[in-house]
């Protein structure tokens, strides 16, 4: 085990001599095993090891005991120790993100604070082969391409994962054989978070019914995908540089003829790359966005425009393909019929998925900012996506009286400029949802609701995990 | 719907004027919808439509009623009708394949017989978007790379799938709106086959707990993977032709220097391609085989040899990489220790996965020719993979007395030549398994068995579905 981890560290260059390595230690088996394995590696590579522990403030006394346990271990081992207590639930609410994501941001933020004191370094985390399998299943279920199937890497920027290729079984065996003391993180045992549900329900079900070696099969899938995806990325980078005519802060111009000679697999990657360069991120760019641009760039008429998230525009002229940061070029007034299934409107750039499900089927799904449920039997006529009209009123969820939409916007401190851009979903009589904001009380899912309308909005800040 | 199917037919060239198209009709909703959609398409494209029905002889009278139903429909519609009764269970036993696979072989065999009478043509089958999702999940669970994630294609050789991009929901709606009469295939409702289990248990679980649009997400994954995988295949073909020095019936010689300049993603594909050319098939070539050859070809010493399935050998000399059909070059006597996890022995070319599981966890998994269960508590000492030794004895499963292994081979009519090659798995005292043949009665899993040893052999005829 020690040899395997040392091999990983050397092969992927995870730790070099004199590096500062902060290892996040919860006290659970995975992070305790990582800690002891890093101590072993230190015998071969002379680096500086620092232990950090974050108390997420969700498990009261028990969490305090864990903190004291890790602190005591650090002292015994003679390793510097830092800890911090945070409130991930409050932080999540404040930032409008899930508490899992909040926890992650707080943890890494703290680790980097520590590293700053030391003049920089890397963060070692205890992700293992089982975590990788869970990540893959999560991504497969939520929707991904082969780039997502690569899963987590041994090293991403300043984060290193020295035990990524070791299964939880082997970690537990190591802990047992070495008599390493650990604590039990009970939050890992509740199937409330998506990841725990995958770990505690889905994977055991697959192991029992389909493949007892599912963890290893998914590991191989991640390795194969990662190799293919890296090759495709590098190849597309080369082609991008060949096709590129001009790359400025506000626009990218590509050679139409050279672009059209590429395979669609490479074209898609070049479009993704260009958009990412202008926006600084990929989130929210869906496969439908990309294939609309692919169609436009291959067959589209000069003058046609496609709107992408964050006001990015794709268009063509005689010789060129252009992707640029525009003023958001949404029609002054727009109104589109929404159908069951996927709805993508290139001229405004919005992307919705619409379903109607029997009430029983949505019990376990939680709504969020971009995923909302409505009583389908209350819907009159067609569903319409449009921007606001003079005189629009709506009844915010939880309230009884209706309100001018304009007043709602004012109360929510939404700038005049934005008010015209926020889409609403309405039927022939009322507004159901001010997208990204409140839903209407009229369409609330009640106990006697039979069919539930599920609307998912893919916004440009959608995070995959 | 008619327009969408016609678009698919045109776009992928599924049906041309004057084609003979045999459509397999079970009488269920999917195939009846396909039948009516093809009748619509016939109004635009002048082709010859033929209905075929196979009675698999597993549901007695009910199956006969289905056959008569399809026959009556064919008559009403004025379309030629052929039917055949088969015994897929007997056929499966005879051929040593699952009854699902047997059913598939018998169906396609019959369809091709019909087409032969017409001078050739294509077979239309009713695979839909849900079937595609099931295929992807099955492959993901069993282990696959991105090439497998492409799933089924609209056209593969002589098989066309005109409704592959239509979901089961939409098919049912179409059936309802058009008032098309159908029968219910009850074998689809039993979660006994892997595929039915995925359909009836796994997908609904994922829809309820993780993603109500899982079918569409998997569809997108298949489309993306198929685009990427086709590009990688074409690119590797080009590189293969560049690197190839000589391609004969019994060997392939590649240029070492040019090979080493390729990305590992492409190297893997070139090795797969070369091996496939010599063997005529890919089945049984695992990722471990391929990565051993990649290592040999990139870093290996001249003179080292790797054994691949079916007696294919990979080796290098000063300037060349060689893949050749050898005499099976297995050491005369060999003996290797087997460990928990994956075991691959390049010098003999065998590949085993070994697990130990608690008894409760294997209740639903069925053993087959290459997947066997043993009582782990009966195992003494190390597990060993070896060929036969003089004086070997073993107690075939279901028998009480022990038998000379030699006599067992004679009874099984195994040629002398093969007898030395068949590997056995033994512990320090007895033979557990004559691999590919019988297991030992001594290690039978009993009611009081606590830990089960699971051994999976990846043989060169392993079929993925």
From TrEMBL, chains A, B:
Class of the enzyme per the UniProt entry, highest EC level: ligase
Signal peptide segment: none
Localization, UniProt: Cytoplasm
Gene Ontology annotations of biological process type: tRNA modification
Catalytic activity: cytidine(34) in tRNA(Ile2) + L-lysine + ATP = lysidine(34) in tRNA(Ile2) + AMP + diphosphate + H(+)
InterPro entries linked: Lysidine-tRNA-synth_C, Phe-tRNA_synthase-like_B3/B4, Rossmann-like_a/b/a_fold, TilS/TtcA_N, tRNA_Ile_lys_synt, tRNA_Ile_lys_synt_N
Biological role: Ligates lysine onto the cytidine present at position 34 of the AUA codon-specific tRNA(Ile) that contains the anticodon CAU, in an ATP-dependent manner. Cytidine is converted to lysidine, thus changing the amino acid specificity of the tRNA from methionine to isoleucine.
Protein name as it appears in the record: tRNA(Ile)-lysidine synthase
Species in which this protein is naturally found: Wansuia hejianensis
Lineage: Bacteria, Bacillati, Bacillota, Clostridia, Lachnospirales
């Amino acid at each position: 085990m020690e040899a395997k981890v040392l091999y990983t560290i050397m092969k992927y260059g995870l730790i070099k001599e004199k590096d500062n390595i902060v290892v996040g230690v919860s006290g659970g088996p995975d992070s305790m095993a990582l800690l002891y394995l890093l101590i072993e590696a230190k015998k071969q590579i002379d680096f500086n090891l620092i232990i950090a522990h974050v108390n997420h403030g969700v498990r009261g006394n028990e969490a305090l005991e864990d903190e004291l346990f890790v602190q005591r271990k650090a002292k015994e081992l003679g390793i510097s120790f830092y800890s911090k207590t945070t409130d991930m639930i409050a932080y999540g609410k404040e930032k409008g993100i899930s508490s899992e994501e909040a926890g992650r941001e707080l943890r890494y933020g703290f680790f980097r604070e520590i590293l700053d004191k030391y003049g920089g370094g890397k963060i070692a985390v205890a992700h293992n082969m089982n975590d990788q399998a869970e990540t893959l299943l999560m991504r497969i279920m939520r929707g991904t391409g082969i780039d997502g199937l690569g899963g987590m890497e041994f090293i991403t920027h300043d984060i290193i994962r020295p035990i990524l290729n070791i299964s939880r079984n082997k970690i537990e065996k190591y802990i047992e054989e070495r008599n390493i003391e650990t604590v039990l993180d009970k939050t890992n045992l509740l199937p409330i978070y998506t990841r725990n549900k995958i770990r505690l329900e889905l994977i055991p079900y697959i192991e029992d019914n389909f493949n007892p070696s599912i963890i290893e099969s998914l590991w191989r899938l991640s390795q194969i995908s990662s190799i293919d995806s890296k090759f495709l990325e590098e190849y597309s980078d080369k082609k991008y540089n060949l096709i590129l005519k001009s790359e400025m802060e506000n626009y990218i111009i590509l050679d139409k003829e050279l672009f059209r000679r590429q395979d669609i697999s490479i074209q898609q990657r070049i479009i993704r790359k260009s958009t990412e360069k202008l926006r600084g991120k990929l989130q929210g760019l869906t496969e439908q966005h990309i294939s609309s641009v692919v169609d436009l760039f291959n067959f589209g008429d000069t003058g046609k425009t496609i709107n992408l998230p964050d006001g990015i525009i794709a268009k063509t002229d005689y010789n060129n393909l252009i992707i640029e940061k525009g003023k958001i070029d949404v029609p002054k007034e727009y109104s589109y019929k929404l159908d069951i299934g996927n709805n993508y409107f290139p001229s405004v750039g919005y992307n919705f998925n619409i379903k109607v499900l029997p009430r029983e089927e949505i019990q376990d799904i939680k709504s969020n900012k971009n995923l909302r449920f409505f009583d389908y039997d209350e819907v009159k006529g067609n569903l319409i996506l449009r921007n606001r009209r003079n005189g629009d009123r709506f009844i915010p969820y939880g309230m009884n009286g209706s309100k001018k939409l304009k007043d709602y916007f004012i109360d929510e401190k939404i700038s005049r400029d934005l008010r015209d851009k926020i889409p609403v979903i309405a039927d022939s009589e009322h507004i159901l949802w001010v997208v990204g904001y409140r839903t209407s009380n009229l369409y609330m899912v009640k106990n006697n609701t039979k069919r539930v309308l599920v609307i998912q909005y893919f916004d440009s800040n959608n995070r995959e995990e």
